[in-house]
Design brief:
Blueprint lengths: L16 E4 L1 H5 L9 H14 L3 E5 L5 H13 L4 E7 L2 H11 L5 E8 L2 H8 L3 H18 L3 E6 L6 H13 L4 E6 L6 H14 L7 E6 L6 H10 L4 E4 L13 H10 L15 H12 L20 H9 L16 H4 L4 E4 L4 H10 L6 H17 L2 E3 H11 L7 E9 L6 E9 L2 E9 L2 H12 L5 E9 L8 E9 L2 E9 L2 H22 L5
Parallel strand pairs: 1-2, 1-8, 2-3, 3-4, 4-5, 5-6, 6-7, 7-8
Antiparallel strand pairs: 9-10, 11-12, 12-13, 14-15, 15-16
Helix pairs in contact: 2-3, 2-11, 3-4, 4-6, 6-7, 7-8, 8-9, 11-16, 15-16, 17-18
The chain binds 3-methyl-2-oxobutanoic acid and zinc ion.
Length: 525
């Protein structure tokens, strides 16, 4: 057996493989697209978190996806890297090519099996689908030893047909069989029973690991995933913060903490270092611009906050009165938890700064550390307390822009109650400094009009969101801007202690990402 057939930590009877698909199914969420540098950073953080399998992308979908899977495959050390492929040779070839640099690699091939999908989406007879299952898995298996097969819309598939497909996939060499609840329609008892049914009826079922993959349309993705595990599944597919199409996928942090906290009822273990959960959550939120709702389980800002007097009183007497898990167990430092995770201050040195950035998944060269450290010191002069969120916002705003076509130089704004509001903007466009002044219906409109005047474009502003990175009036503002053009979209972020400067940087960032996408556009699916 070669190295790529061996999962990072082989599952035992009670060991559950964690398969993270934030970079693939998560990224499919509208507006959540990430660039190469962001994907590499997230992949490093996922490895630190202890994820067994990282699904890095769908290589045939675009050149960008292909490059990202290849780069992540080259960087990975411990985790298995998976790529998605439809049941077609050209997809599987492209996937294998992208995965080539990985020490541990998995081809994940899928086809729809439900009557609805076969008839309307694939327009294929069941017999043809069954043949495609065997052919695609056998072909993938001729290229790598670790092959996962998924029955798309598996939870709405007729049982007899599902059994025949699963048996065929295993016979053709699939090592993992995934039964997705693609449309989030299942309920726990029924979804769990599906796995019991497969284990009872498919003769070669013990030759593969069974996997759950649940979407959250009815808010049941985590409950369904756990029901599947209780019925014999030993791999869970999930995403950080539950990122994913529509209502998202099952949230990794909720599943892992449920298994850990209720080990009495759910006697399964994972290889996840739960103390790294907050890091991963913050990074995904920062990269995508998707703010985590305050009352979100495990990673929401209020998940460990105790506001009411009765609760505070109980907590002071014994933490167990209202706390079923500790903030430390998910990576919040208790002393700092109430203040949002203070980590750095004005007197922190370069070594501590660099170490903290490494924890947050940044691998910066010396020049980038110098540049970001200088901005960190400037920020620390304005703001007493520097939090992880500040560092993420600051570094994201600073790094990776050297190659940008459009670069921010300076901004002066006349705001206030007397119209018209006016923006005086200087940008560096293709290395040439250009200046203009524009008015608008408010200062943000004036800034965006000035950008349009300097770099004319048709992209539509789809989202403008301001988020205070931390508490306090001296907090940095982090602005997310989403621009849409034809079928392309890009999220840009900007951070600054001045909200208007942050807005301008965010718009320019999104525009640069859109320009890269224009250049990379490849025939879609
Ligand atoms: O939800 C789904 O069915 C999927 C498959 C491609 C695995 O994401
Ligand atoms: Zn999915």
């Amino acid at each position: 057996m070669t190295a790529d057939a061996v999962p990072a930590s082989p599952p035992t009877a009670d060991r559950v493989v964690i398969f993270d698909t934030t970079l693939r199914d998560g990224e499919q969420s509208p507006g959540a697209s990430m660039n190469l540098e962001e994907k590499l950073r997230l992949a490093r953080v996922l490895e630190e978190l202890g994820v067994d399998v990282i699904e890095a992308g769908f290589p045939i979908a675009s050149n960008g996806d292909f490059e990202a899977v290849r780069a992540i495959a080259g960087q990975a050390r411990r985790s298995t890297i998976a790529g998605l492929a439809r049941a077609q040779r050209k997809d599987i070839d492209r996937c294998a090519e992208a995965l080539a640099p990985a020490e541990r690699k998995r081809i994940h091939t899928f086809i729809s099996t439900s009557p609805l999908h076969m008839k309307y989406k694939l327009q294929m007879e069941p017999a043809k689908v069954l043949a495609a299952v065997s052919e695609s898995v056998a072909y993938a298996r001729s290229l790598v030893e670790d092959v996962e097969w998924s029955a798309e819309d598996g939870s709405r598939t007729e049982h007899d047909f599902l059994c025949r497909c699963v048996e065929a996939a295993i016979r053709a060499g699939a090592t993992t069989i995934n039964i997705p609840d693609t449309v989030g329609y299942g309920v726990p008892e029924e979804y769990g029973a599906l796995f019991s049914m497969l284990r009872n009826r498919v003769p070669n079922i013990d030759q593969a690991i069974l996997s759950v993959h649940c979407h959250n349309d009815l808010g049941l993705a985590v409950a369904n995933s756990l029901a599947g595990v209780q019925s014999g599944a030993r791999q869970i597919e999930c995403t950080i913060n539950g990122l994913g199409e529509r209502a998202g996928n099952a949230a990794l942090e909720e599943i892992v903490m449920a298994l850990r906290t209720r080990h009495d009822k759910l006697p399964f273990i994972t290889g996840i270092r739960t103390e790294a959960i907050m890091n991963a959550s913050r990074l995904v939120s920062a990269i995508t611009g998707f703010v985590v709702q305050p009352n979100k389980a495990i990673v929401g800002a209020n998940a460990f906050a105790h506001e009411s007097g009765i609760h505070q009183d109980g907590m002071l007497k014994h933490a167990g009165t209202y706390e079923i898990m500790t903030p430390e167990s998910v990576g919040l430092v208790r002393a700092a938890a109430d203040r949002g995770g203070l980590v750095m201050g004005k007197h922190s040195g370069r070594a501590a700064f660099r170490a903290r950035l490494a924890d947050l998944g940044y691998a910066l060269d010396d020049t980038a550390v110098d540049e970001t450290f200088r901005r960190f010191k400037e920020l620390a002069d304005k703001k007493k307390e520097i939090f992880d969120e500040d560092l993420i916002a600051l570094v994201d705003d600073q790094i990776g822009h050297a190659e940008d076509t459009i670069q921010f130089v300076s901004l002066d704004v006349r705001a206030g109650s007397r119209a018209p509001q006016r923006a005086e903007l200087v940008l560096l466009i293709d290395g040439e400094e250009r200046a203009t002044s524009a008015t608008g219906n408010g200062p943000v409109d004036a800034i965006f009009n000035a950008i349009k005047a300097l770099y004319p474009h048709d992209a539509r502003l789809d989202l403008y969101q301001v988020h205070a990175v931390t508490a306090g009036t001296d907090a940095q503002a982090e602005v997310s801007v989403r621009l849409e053009e034809q079928d392309r979209g890009a999220v840009g972020r900007g951070a600054d202690s001045d909200t208007l400067v942050a807005s301008c940087r965010a718009y320019v960032h999104a525009l640069n990402k859109l320009l890269v996408k224009r250049g990379r556009a490849a025939p879609g699916l």
